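By convention, each integer encodes one residue's backbone shape. The lines below illustrate.
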Amino acid sequence: MSDVTASRSGQSGLAWAGFDPRAFSLIGLLAAIALVFHFLSGGLFLTPRNLYNLVVQTSVVAILAAGMTLVIATRNIDLSVGSILGFVGMLIALFQIQIFPMDAAWNWPLTIMVGIIAGGLIGAWHGAWIAYGGVPSFVVTLGGLLIFRGAAFEVAQGKTLAPFQPTYQLLGGGIDGAIGEANSWILFVVLMSLYGLGEVVLNRRQARLGFATLPAARFVRFALFCVVGMAFVWAMNSYDRPRSDIGRGIPAPALILLAVVLCMEFIARFTTFGRYVYAIGGNLEAARLTGIPTKSTVLWVFVTMGVLCGIAAVVTTARLNAGTSSTGELLELSAIAAAVIGGVSLAGGRGTVAGAVVGALVIQSLDSGMVLVGASSSQRMVAIGLVLIAAVWTDHRLSRKT
């Protein structure tokens, strides 16, 4: 009994407030990276311009990492996400530029639907082989990496397809691809209000059901989110449009990422499907014996991953304003690294979408900082590889202790 009491008394304030201590260690690492590179780059890293670009660049990897979280949580892997992104991006470009009339108002929404549906179908194809065909996910998705990279070339015989419709380009977060200062603050107030209301409702519900409640912890959590959100909006608003004093506000890719994270967090934490995912990763045989539809769950996990590849393809092509067959090369490694650095266990059954997003931000911050100090691409790859190895070693140590 004394051991349990000592363990509880040793919990950090962050754990008391409902935060994952490992997630905050990642945020501490992120802060250290930012401060070190801000000093080494002569004050360039923490400028509004670099932070805005960092958010835009992180969005694609974070979207893929959100889907990779569920894939790895089921003890699977997807090595094909970069190739799927490239192939879907070329399909979007082909339909928008060569097949559909460019001047039609429905052109870009319909091509987005084409891309997302294509990504979902590819994910279903992979999932069927894995779940019902019994082929290891490593083999299936490695084949997918080769197949869809080659297919991306074949779509236009290696030609670059450009440009896209101006409205579609806004989704990439370019010069006009942000919602402005006022709308950014309005969005912040609305989201924080909804979050605060949700905490109040949840606290009352727990009290009514007889569960222990910690209103002070909820208030601390709400206050921390408010501070972080205000700092983010202020940074995005501080980056002015060209030749003006008007702030850009939150970029479109960040809004798309926010929608993806909220949706994926809801699925992972509050749905039966999400519980099935983590149960399968925790113990596949036990999950099967308890009646969990393991095969269909794995199939839908890969469908979800394919859909997110389609969304990431939209953001990428809109930002580049072109479809190229080389788009997305090596992104599968970044997505896997982000998920693992963010706390997703390669042994399955553990990890959060939010943690994977922070992991993506760590990777992109490291890459961006090394660019600012003049590091070569090979040096950046070495650094990210070392961080990945350290993250896997940490995960291994934590798994053994557990």
Notes: The mean pLDDT is 87. Residues 247 and 374 are 28 Å apart (CA to CA). Residues 181-209 form the longest helix (29 residues). The two ends are 19 Å apart (CA to CA).
